[in-house]
Amino acid sequence: MLVLDIMSILDSLKHNLIKQNNVLFLDANTPLLIGKCLRNHLAHDNALVNVLLFDPLIAVVLNAKKLIEENNKSKEQIDEKDIKSKEKVGELISDNSFNLTEKYSQDLDTITNQERMFAALEEGKPNNFKDCLEKGADINARSINSWTTLHFAAKGSSPEVIEFILDQNLSDNVKDINGQSPLHIAAEHGRNNIVEFFIKKGLYIDDLDNSRKTLLHVAAQKGHKDTVVVLLNNNKAHTIARDKIGLSPLHYAIMNNHIDVTKILMEKTENAYKMLNEIIIGNLTPLHAAAQRGYLELVKVLLENGANVNVINEDWTPLHLAALNGHLEVVRVLIQKGAHVDASSINCFTPLHCAVEKGHEKIVNILLEHGADVNAADKITNNNTSLHYAAINGYEEIVKTLLKNNAIASIATITGVTPLHIAAQNGHLGIVVALLDHDVDIHDKVDICAKDQNNVTSLHCAAKSGHKEISELLIERGAEINAKTNNNVTPLHAAALNGQINIVNLLIKIVNDLNEIKDIDTVKAIMNARNEENKTLVVAAVHNNFSEVEQLKEVSQPGVSSQINEGLVLCNQDDFQMALIFFKSAYEKRKEILGSDNPGTLDIQTYIGSVSYAQGAYQEALNTFKEIFQKQKEILGLNDKNTLRTGSTIAFTLYTLGRYKEAFNICQEICPKQKEILGPNHLDTLDSQFRMALVLDAQGKYEEALNINRTVFEEIEKIFKKNPTSLCIQENIAMVLANQGKLEEALKIYKDVYKRKKVVLGINHVRTLETLHNIAVIHDKQKNYYEALTTFQKVLDERKKVLGENHRETLNTQYCIANVLLSEFKLIDALRAYTECFEQINAAFGPSHPTVLNILNKIKYINYIFKFTGLEPRDYILLYLQKDITTFNVINENNENENNVKM
């Protein structure tokens, strides 16, 4: 008895047997063809059960021999009318699979013995092998990877078994799915006696598999020294043979750090030194690869045999890679063999830069001892030196080492940034101290007031980032407190604008005259600076008669600001229900003091509307935004930027509700006004145009949507440079292209965005995973279900880790996986997937959400298919999926005594 994925086989035979309203049909010729394919689907290690797991509904339990016999009978006995009507598969086999199992139990034993036969051969047990043959195992069978009995025997260790198999007239050069012969298998597993046996039989020693690997390739790759010797001594296997990617056996030995094999092959390979200096995988030479991985002994061997110590790939030398990866002893050897310590990449990155950036202090010392240029500047990031990199990463001891070795403490990049700027900004107090104390030479002394191209000082950096101790130290050492940037921002302003209350307090204590703080925006920034308890800072009543103090005090509400912040934190954690409680409480308190029409009150009301939207309560959110919009029109005016922003949000909410015409009308009104009032390049203007494109796409106006998206993208890229918003716009462009059916174009853009997000945000960032999710959607639309399912599963695994199992995006991915399974007609898998995620989605989205309703409809559809085909999702099928075939037989035998199994 065999388990057969019928859909897979019929598709491979290119039969068009799926009709509009019917599921599966057979014609008179199909049984014989299926019977032949069944034989080819024999597998060991329960691979057949794995086949069933992929598509359990339309998998049929059949017997190859019986099916072929049925075909022979059909020529005389099958009614012609039945053939023409193409009876369903379910009517050609027994409706009772338990009876079917009993009927074909002998064939099931054959399958089991066949699996045991493969295992016996693999383990080199000839007696067990012959016992399996006596019990009905087929010596001509193949595994799911097209391994024959001879392949399994070659992995074993018994030439006698191989001799026996060959006596049964099996080909000794038969190939598996990878194009490998039994001789390949023997070489790969280091079976020297088997290799010698086949060679004596006259098998071609340089036979190629599908990857164009010879026996010597696979033996060298696995490090089987004795096998390599056998191959070289017998018929002299070609050492210079190259596989599909251009690698020789020597290359594989090197890449896998098989030193003995490497030595043997270098001795036997003509002009081996040339191979040692070739660019191979990843634009690396063998020496690059060995240095990068820290293979010390291998590095020595390569250098002794002619590898160029200063060989350059597209950019770096082996010394760069050894320094970057912290391989101290490899660095020593390379330098001893003449490596240039100041070797420079295309971007002028030296080995010292590499070692410093990764914090490899001992390697830094070695490079400096051998004369590395301590002040060499790269061209990657505005001419950073090693001292800049050490300051960025907080490597205090390396900073001290560099300074002792004559690093210029005040050295600046082309934008004027000094190591002191960097250390102050990143909060590295010890490095700041080391730089300030470095006064060996008056010309090399740190300029504490040094300014970059924007006139930013190190005190600005420390104040903005909230580093109090560093700020105090800089002021103590003479930093200019009132220094102004090109935008007239002082350190006090910088601290206030970034909510650094400790720095604000520090600077205000030092600055005795507050009359300079007359800009209302600066005062607001100071008032909104928050302490560790997130309470609003009360200022301006200190030391002078500030005219706006009393008014500002009235809007200072410590409890409210704390609640707002807590609500925002909860929103970031997707705990919207609890966030709503905080926002509503803050709203009531502020409304009591300021009134419902105050802009400050409306700010909190906007948060409430946003939470409603995030919860999927789109109509409730729309009502809230409309109320805010009306009040903003009255108190701020229709043309105020805040009013216009709310109008744009209303349009976006209408779009989400599917009310595209209303959304379009609002966008038509809002966009021109924002362009006129705020300018065409203002973020609010571009954001509204971005939303307009979404609406146009939903209306099927793809070209218009595409043009707007491209225009917005160009402006974002041109004005704001590498703004993350541009990635969102690119994704929208891809979405429009996908809706136009241009799936390849869309996929290309999504992949480009995904690549950039991995760099900018990280591979496991929620927005990066969102793009990977979109890539899976495209694969699904392309009917590339394997890629779609694999990609969705990868997204699901990471979202569970990053967001949690019950997060909306995690649940959405589970839902998409179920959809792919349904598209492949894997109904039981799809049913299981829908059932597993339904409760969580129902709880997260609510019973009336479209996704919840869609799941219910699809479950209903699947059950309809079960009923229509007569193949119901019985408990025994699910049980069969979880058990070994033998265990399943035991259950069948006891079936009559177990009434809990549904029939």
Automatic annotation (TrEMBL):
UniProt keyword Ribonucleoprotein, yes or no: no
Source taxon at top rank: Eukaryota
Any matching Pfam family: TPR_12
Gene3D superfamilies in the record: Ankyrin repeat-containing domain (1.25.40.20), Tetratricopeptide repeat domain (1.25.40.10)
UniProt entry tagged with the keyword Repeat: yes
Keyword terms, alphabetized: ANK repeat, Repeat
Mapped ANK repeat ranges: 145-177, 178-210, 211-244, 245-268, 282-314, 314-346, 347-379, 382-414, 415-447, 454-486, 487-519
Record's protein name: Ankyrin-3
Organism: Temnothorax longispinosus
